[in-house]
Amino acid sequence: MPALPSLLSDIMSSLGGSSNSRVKSPLRRSDESMLLEDFLLQIVVAYIKFAQMVRFEIGRQKFMELLESMNVREALSVLRNELTPLGVETDTLHTLSTYFLFLSPEELRKTTQWDGAAGNSRKLLLKKLHSTTRYFHFIFLL
Q1: Nearest-CA neighbor of 64 among 107, 99, 101?
Q2: Over the stretch 130-140, which tens digit does the pLDDT of each residue have?
Q3: What is the pTM of this model?
């Protein structure tokens, strides 16, 4: 990854000027600074959303595995303390909370079309996170 000064110089060049250039940019310096700040803010916001998505997906897997093992108290704790604070849509949380009504692990797996901890669910989660991470890094490096 390029050093921060080099990265900032590249960004400034793409905005129509360079910190080392003697050519005046059509934008005033304050406009360039504002554009750079907006760009960096968008990167930070995207990273925060990405991190929340990763935490949610891992937390949902943990929740499902706890329910599958009939550890209802721990599953409720994950739902309340790990998933809810992430600001997930209410409908998603309500759907997850209905899973407490299943009477057996088999019913949970069948109704939710989730193959369980012994199945491919962990591999599928890792594959999803890996592809999303690669996409995020690709966007970040543009």
Answers
A1: 99
A2: 887 776 666 55
A3: 0.69
